[in-house]
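Case study: Peptide deformylase.
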Amino acid sequence: MILPIVAYGDPVLRKVATEITKDYPDLEKLITNMKETMYNASGVGIAAPQIGKAIRLFVIDASPFAEDEELSDKDRAALKDFNKVFINAKIIEEEGEEWVFNEGCLSIPDVREDVIRKPNITIEYLDENFEKHTESLDGLAARVFQHEYDHIEGILFTDKLSSLKKRIIKKKLENISKGKIRADYRMRFPNQKKGK
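Here is what the predicted structure looks like once written out:
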């Protein structure tokens, strides 16, 4: 089922999400719905807070990036099969020389800005079967993970912008929170009641 994506301004996007256990109600169905919602919105990742649930869960399918001719062969190879579920994820280490990449977010339609992040990360997470993994990611795979991870920490990519950039996009963000935006997918705005 395709769920509405929570828009900028909703308090759920600012909550530090809570860990979940194997017995979280209808977890398999929730993961399926999140993937459907992400694909419907042409996203490469979506976190549970973006569908109104403050839990430490996100899904990523960065394989569409593997088609991008401008990326390095290494990045394209890493992204080709980067399709995973992340439960109770943690970043153990971030390192390397910071780099800039243009990011957007399904909760903040029509806003894209350059964001600085570290290129190499070591992560721990549970998959959908609650098996523990420790992995190292770099380049674009690390960036997509960091973006989704920020969501479960109550952080948005716009928080990482300079104060000047924040002032420039302030009106756009206000309009999104008021529902004065057209997106190609279902959205839920802060002043909108659930179920609408």
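For the exam, be able to explain this: The two ends are 15 Å apart (CA to CA).
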